[in-house]
Amino acid sequence: MKVSMYFICALFVFAILVSCAPYRGVAGESEHLSNIRKLIDGVTTKSEISDQLLSPINSFENDRILIFRWQPSYENQYHIVTVFDDNDILQKHSIIKVR
Fold this sequence. Notes:
The chain is α+β, with helices and mostly antiparallel strands. It has one domain (26-97). The chain has helices at residues 2-19, 29-37, 46-53; strands spanning 58-60, 65-70, 78-84, 90-97.
């Protein structure tokens, strides 16, 4: 009986410690943040963005508008909306928090 009681106490302590552990984010999170900071309207190309931010989750107007997802933490998720000109140069981008 003592062994099982110690085991239950150990599990309880472990569960408390794990539930209080801080969230460390998604793997590669800092790399994506660095890539997002490199987005420069009028300079960055569509191929550079696609290489940096993975695949878009949605596209409109024959791929002139691309939407990417970025989730830096468990609680936070953002959509990055990019608009390109006819030469595939980024004209405008917005980072929108998803609720």
